[in-house]
Amino acid sequence: xxxxxxxxxxxxxxxxxxxxxxxxxxxxxxxxxxxxxxxxxxxxxxxxxxxxxxxxxxxxxxxxxxxxxxxxxxxxxxxxxxxxxxxxxxxxxxxxxxxxxxxxxxxxxxxxxxxxxxxxxxxxxxxxxxxxxxxxxxxxxxxxxxxxxxxxxxxxxxxxxxxxxxxxxxxxxxxxxxxxxxxxxxxxxxxxxxxxxxxxxxxxxxxxxxxxxxxxxxxxxxxxxxxxxxxxxxxxxxxxxxxxxxxxxxxxxxxxxxxxxxxxxxxxxxxxxxxxxxxxxxxxxxxxxxxxxxxxxxxxxxxxxxxxxxxxxxxxxxxxxxxxxxxxxxxxxxxxxxxxxxxxxxxxxxxxxxxxxxxxxxxxxxxxxxxxxxxxxxxxxxxxxxxxxxxxxxxxxxxxxxxxxxxxxxxxxxxxxxxxxxxxxxxxxxxxxxxxxxxxxxxxxxxxxxxxxxxxxxxxxxxxxxxxxxxxxxxxxxxxxxxxxxxxxxxxxxxxxxx
Length: 499
Known about the structure:
alpha+beta
């Protein structure tokens, strides 16, 4: 690969860039180093495609030792590093800076150990979420967190954002299913946190690492809990004439003490798009649809579905249909899992991620509709209703700069609403760059300062995934470290606002 060149840069800047590339070529095999412009553009964005930045270089390590060597070099040379998995982040969490090295762990995708006796699996961070369950399913086990992007998203990325999924209502999100990680610190030191047991000796650091968005270290291996696969499971489809009735039904199911595996919500626009996409048998006359799945023995499933149906009758459902076969269940879930892709065929969309108390679900949906109408956008609501994790999809034209600015304002107002209703800014997508300036909606100066202190304890020079999570507005000089360019100027920006 050729030495990195840029159009008309300052000589000192170009010399530093080329020097970094030359040293990286001596450090790692050239086959895992990408420095040409076309290759680097492959990593210029993530699923939040409104933002684009071309990194200085990309390294595709295959081992923890290679990760350690790259981080040690970047630490010693004050080079920023952006860890990356599959790039499915919806908050700009994997967006690079122009003077950063992207460390993409997609080659580290092996299952290292399946221990069914202790119900754990040890995997590399680049393995896809669904591949963990596939590896364990032959022994009758599964890995619980199941993001909609589970076919593509990686376990390391799930750890970074504390991902959830449809079935996490019963089994919890990533932090509830991770027992240990191997993490490389910014200076190259390799550290193991947790282990193979529910309780590990020493301080419980794992909850800090899970959800830290690659700002504390680079996770290369993860030890996850495996759960015994249930005897059976089956969903029921409940159609309603209003979103208010559907939302009230969700709250009533949870209040009754029933804990389904999942309660998923879809409004009319989402129902029609998904039904057209996969022909799942969704009721097209409904204003809102609930997918409620329960599990257990066949007798237990029948009992729970009867209870759910009894509760739903109080809200006058327009349709009730229990799945009668494994094929029918698979079709129902295929429609839900394909929802984002189905809507993406029709329009660009801005996917929000906020959390509200279940008692405020009906109010939240009404307000979201009003906010989107105010900004002149259509919206489709598809989300994990059981735990109040909202995912409004705001439909807009990403090539229209005016619409792009309006959709960001619209999304910010929705997230502000979530906080005002007693919820929070993110359920599973993380803060990234999308929500960093909104952090003050939820946290005081003192709260954010405490989080900054934790960041600095792990990464004093702010080299790991800088420019994410923490608000730039109002930062003092100490918190701004790592955001100056250290002699490297950015390439011409593409897309919308600079991160």
